[in-house]
Write a structure and sequence with these properties.
Elements lengths: L4 E2 L6 E2 L5 H13 L7 H23 L12 H14 L2 H32 L1 H15 L7 H8 L3 H25 L3 H9 L4 H36 L7 H10 L3 H29 L9
Helix pairs in contact: 3-11, 4-5, 4-7, 4-9, 4-10, 5-7, 6-7, 7-9, 8-9, 9-10, 9-11, 10-11
GO biological process, one term: transmembrane transport
Membrane topology: Multi-pass membrane protein
Keywords: Cell membrane, Membrane, Transmembrane, Transmembrane helix, Transport
Length: about 290
Amino acid sequence: MTAKLSDKATGQTLVPAGSEEAANHKRSEYWFDFNQAIPGGQRLILGAAGWITFVLVWHITSQMDLAPERLYPGPVAVFSALQELFIEQSFLSDVMASLTRILVSFSIALVIALPLGILMGSFARVDAVLNPLMGAWRYLPAPAFIPLLLMWLGTGDTQKIALLLMGVVFFLIIMLADVTRQTPKVLIETAKTLGGGRRIILWTVLFRHSLPGYVDTCRQMLAVSWTYLVIAEIVAATDGIGAMMMRARRFVHVDDIMAGIVTIGVLGLLLDTVFRLIYRKSFPYLGRGHS
């Protein structure tokens, strides 16, 4: 039996090198070392391994007769359907319609949320007035407003963009305010000591210090926008990924529905990657682990 030694300074158990326990300990450290930085190539390989495992499990379960093939198609059938959608059914126009709605609605949400979030995070009395209101609106489900939006705005793009906007704007305001609020008070006090006015402190200290957090918050909330997309497009929509999925439902084309789900996931992943690249290029001093 291998003897174990205890390091009194750190309280850790020391395992002799070359033993089986040392090998197990090394494997454990490989997977479960806190905040360990890993090379970009290794990160890419591990990410690909996760996707390959998911597709393999999907393929295996689709071959186990757990459900009729028509209701639970495997990855080969779904990717074949996706190829057919792009080649024969002008699916690209549906993708562009959905992407436009997401980007327009999120841009409007950001224009509204950024100034309000900065003001709420900077000034306690402004926060005291707005936080209860914004906090309450966060708990109202956006789909509950579909009947009102249909009566007020009709069935066109305006109604869909408004629904996507309502799904994220109140969360975005609160989250941007929280990011602003995390600015160290010593920076604000130093700026005041040097004669900086409110406008200078807002722009030079609060905004610039919080900018990395703003970018990361936008990345996270853009993912929430995608979760509302199908809901926005199932009501009287003639184009968009959600509309295609509803057409497929009428004819029980589950492979087309799952192809739409895959498309949303890929588009979301691509936008998330773009935000991560912007973050790393704009704020290299923060390191990879912050986003």
